[in-house]
Amino acid sequence: MSTSSKITVEITDVTPELATHFLEKSTVNRPLEDTLAQTYAKLMKEEEWLLNGKTIVFDEDGFMRNGLHRCHACIAAGTPFPSVVISGPSRDAFSNLSSKN
Fold first, then answer.
1. For the chain, does the N or the C end have fewer beta carbons within 10 angstroms?
2. In DSSP terms, which residues pair with 11 in a beta bridge?
3. Is residue 67 classed exposed, middle or buried when 0-12, 13-18 and 19+ CB atoms within 10 A define those classes?
4. How far apart are CA 46 and CA 98, in angstroms?
């Protein structure tokens, strides 16, 4: 088990352009649930989405491991949203997570 990963945490306004870039790095996510993404998009479009502690996470190899639905929602809504963005956890750290978490 590696503990040498350098993890960074920041709060970012994710724009549709940035969300598109993030999705280019999303090859290991679960399948997209369109209904969920559309629900998020509606909240974002109506400016009701608040910074809520849910994270967008990129592993040590730069692959997005969490944030798929929020990024699709941002693009559909055409508006930015605030998010905590974490980069750097070891890819091994995701082996104990299920899509239910």
1. N
2. 84
3. buried
4. 31
pTM for this prediction: 0.85
In this predicted structure, what is the pLDDT of residue 97? 56
Tell me if 41 is assigned to some domain: yes
Give the tokens for residue 2.
């590696």
Domain membership of residue 8 (yes or no) is: no
**CATH code at 41?**
3.90.1530
- pLDDT single digits (tens) 32-89: 999 999 999 999 999 999 999 999 999 999 999 999 999 999 999 999 999 999 999 9
Two tokens at 16?
Answer: 């549709």
